[in-house]
Amino acid sequence: MAQGDYADSLLNLESVRKSLIRQEDTIIFSLIERAKYPLNLPLYDGDLLGCNSSRSLFEFFVKESEALQAKAGRYLWPEENAFFPDNLPTSLLPPLNQPPVLHPRSATININEKIKKLYLDSLLPLIAAEGDDRNYAVTAASDLNCLQAISQRIHFGKFVAEVKFRDDPEDYIPAIRAKDKETLMKLLTFESVEEMVKKRVEKKAKIFGQDVGVEDHSSSSSSYKVDPSAVRKLYADWVIPLTKLVEVEYLLQRLD
Q: CA 184, 149, 152 angle in degrees (round to 5)?
């Protein structure tokens, strides 16, 4: 991708909007995949690896997976945010020959610890059934796919904030200089758009999560692979609010 094309694709409001809509599909399909497995709670318990381990098998899997992906260049891209950023080895690939897209200081914002806690404590019980099939490796891989998809969507707020700031800097600069989070949040909030997003992801979850057969019968709510209301709740309670949190934090540092 040419330098100009890359920057334009991330700093154009219409391109950002399309990317956010595509990310909805990725998130929903990753949740459907995770729902194939039960909760498998020992995966997240530090006792599984023995008394000499200070972390769970899940944390070990995520940390080691990110290290491998870092070597392959995943975290060279500004869209990516690691859950263990202090553990990333140097990429085997050279740095990207791309102009900076985000403000350097604001680009380092990372709320993955909050995202991980919400996923494990609140979202996972909504999408996975009780039980333990001991299939921990594929479960952890599915968890990581979910977390990375949700994280990318939430941290895309940095690009949203940059686009909005560049389009109307005079709207944001007074509030940024005053460190007025409340005003920034009001400027970034469009309730009608948020409601449309919540309705869209719930409808997508109904469509993507149906068991499709030869006969043309509508799927009942009990046969959805992931409860559509859980997907709506994910966006309403976590994705949208945390995205705006990232946007506000980004803007507060935008003039530094």
A: 35
pLDDT tens digits for 152-196?
Answer: 999 999 999 999 999 999 999 999 999 999 999 999 999 999 999
Instruction: State if pTM tops 0.85.
Output: yes
Question: What is the C-alpha separation between 176 and 181, in angstroms, rounded?
Answer: 8
Catalogue all structural domains in the chain, each as residue range(s) with its CATH number: 3-252 (1.10.590.10)
Token pair listed for 172: 């944001």
State the Cα–Cα distance between residues 162 and 47, nearest whole angstrom: 44
In one letter, which amino acid is 176?
I
Q: Which long-range contacts (CB under 8 A, 24 or more apart) does 6-13 make?
A: 6/98, 6/99, 6/101, 7/98, 7/99, 7/101, 10/78, 10/79, 10/101, 10/159, 11/101, 11/159, 11/162, 11/163, 11/166, 12/163, 13/163, 13/164, 13/167
